[in-house]
Fold this protein.
Amino acid sequence: MKLRNPLIASLAIAGAGALAWIARSKRPQLPEPAAEPPRLGYSRNGSAPAPVAETGAS
């Protein structure tokens, strides 16, 4: 079978190979980091408990 334009055919094959190489070489994106879990001893609204020295308790 004789192609009408072998230059176009070779460019198409080269382009398909380049696309396959690019798709294979792409690294997958890392997922977003998970939200930090609440620390033990702290309230749910994010405010820290007052230190003993500031409460006036002695």
The chain is about 35% helix and 0% strand. The helical segments are 6-25. The CA atoms of residues 37 and 44 lie 10 Å apart. Residues 6-25 form the longest helix (20 residues).
